[in-house]
Design a protein that fits this description.
Elements: H1 3-35, H2 46-57, E1 63-72, E2 75-82, E3 89-95, E4 99-106
Antiparallel strand pairs: 1-2, 2-3, 3-4
């Protein structure tokens, strides 16, 4: 083999080595994802989450639920407003088997 062929063979071996490593990494990632349990639907918790978060927000006035989202197997987030007029505030409520987080923010008045 002449030196030019040897050099070309070395270059292609190095570049293919990176490709093989990428393929191996991808295969390992797929195997790990395959062993994880599929997300479970906890939509049966939604009415309980809505009621508990509404009760928490009701301390600040009339409650209006804006959105609900399942963010994990055991967690639902609820967004809404509480209060009326100038006293209206937005809230974010996190629910698992009970209210585990509640953030309240004032809504600035429009000018």
């Amino acid at each position: 083999m002449n030196p030019l062929q040897v050099c070309g063979l070395l270059i292609s071996t190095v570049s293919l080595g990176g490709c093989v490593a990428g393929i191996a990494t991808s295969a390992v990632g797929m195997a790990v994802r395959g062993t994880r349990a599929a997300p479970q639907d906890n939509s049966a918790l939604a009415p309980n989450a809505r009621d508990a978060c509404s009760a928490q927000a009701a301390r600040y006035g009339a409650v209006h639920i804006i959105d609900m989202q399942q963010v994990a197997i055991n967690k639902i987030k609820i967004w809404g407003t509480a209060g009326d007029g100038a006293a209206r505030q937005s809230f974010e409520c996190t629910y698992g088997t009970k209210v585990t987080g509640f953030k309240l923010r004032k809504i600035p008045l429009r000018r």
